[in-house]
Request: fold
Amino acid sequence: MSDAFDIAIVGGGMVGASLGVALKDLGARVALIEAIPHDAATQPSFDERTTALSNGSRRILDTLGVWPAVACAATPIRKIHVSDQGHFGFARIDAAEQGLAAMGYVVPNRSLGAALWSQVNAGGNVRIFCPAQVARVAASENSVQLEVSAANGIKAIIDTQLVVAADGVQSAVRNAFGVAAETRDYEQTAVITTILPQRFHDNVAYERFTASGPLAILPLADGRCTLVLTLSKAMADAAMAWSDAQFLAEVQRRFGFRLGRILKVGRRVPYPLSLSRARATSAGRCVIIGNAAQGLHPVAGMGFNLGLRDVASLAELIAEQRQQGRLDAGDSAMLAEYDAWRRADRGGSIAFTDGLVRLFSNPLRAVQGVRNLGLLAFDLLPPAKAALSRLSSGAAGRIPKLARGVALSGVALK
Ligand SMILES: Cc1cc2nc3c(=O)[nH]c(=O)nc-3n(C[C@H](O)[C@H](O)[C@H](O)COP(=O)(O)OP(=O)(O)OC[C@H]3O[C@@H](n4cnc5c(N)ncnc54)[C@H](O)[C@@H]3O)c2cc1C
Reply:
């Protein structure tokens, strides 16, 4: 016996769960398959990290009805301060100067998970398979068959017209469709933790480039901040073993005293960093989104924001297709349109993030001079700042309806 669906989303992490919410009222029969419940300690997407959301992402979540539940845990970023340790250049971006209420918002991943999953569960046409894992994928011309194994050992067979690979960087679904991903190991590890500085952060986010990698400090509620300390692999191993006092002294040495003394540090968690880029964003009846399509260095906080634009674009095309009475969710023309739509945003975000990592890891003096001048020029040139805030908010190219505040409507099931 098999169950028939129009769309099966494999992976209910940040991106897959967002797609579940976006599709739930469009009239399509949707299956959402996730291996680990959103509130489990081992959940890899909704873990102890925080995510910096762009204004575009906030608008998408608002249009999807998720933002009110996220807002109470979100901290607005009013200013961004970028500097280079030991060099003269620095740049500031001020939301008010750009005519914005905030440059973005910092949200704990666990709060985002709770808000997204409560929406997916709140009625609509999404059938949840969780905890359950896709164990086998068999594709034919007219459908895709998925073998799903639940944690209790029960197996289910799902027949679907379209499978969405939202199963992260190591995507088994992407691999089953023969789509390779190019990867580059940055040989860096981000050590994430929470800190309490002596001075209030004033809702400023700091990005500081140091010889061993970038350091980011993001404002949180109660005056605390998230610290993302990027180090070489060997140094990160050492940093994980340091005492709290040693760790704080090292952070203070790199960051300086803009926030006074750093008084406390929380649990440290390491994340090895690499770039992963799938060679295609669709193949046959499979569409590849989020980290399964592109896994970025967190330096510019773009990964989820980009994945959410994948979601908004794909959901819009599916809604349009259904309104036009074209009910094959795996239609190749629709997938080709998706690929074309996502190309520039995806390529630009990957190039921007990768370029930033390379530029600021280069020890050559000439490059250092250029990057310092670049930061200064950036600070003096309002159009450059406006361009960056447009790029980081996704306000470039064709903007999805959800990011413009326009709800999607579908065709109800008969
Ligand atoms: C340190 C760090 C900081 C970051 N900060 C930011 C930030 O500030 N802003 C930002 O925009 N982005 C940020 N990112 C990037 C962001 O975390 C990712 O872009 C996001 O997690 C991608 O979500 P995803 O759902 O595509 O993939 P994942 O988070 O990897 O989720 C994949 C899901 O699929 C499930 N799964 C896998 N295989 C199967 C299977 N066979 N069957 C069923 N389920 C399966 C997994 O359990 C998981 O829940 C950061 C990343 C890191 C590492």
Summary: The chain has eleven helices and 20 strands.
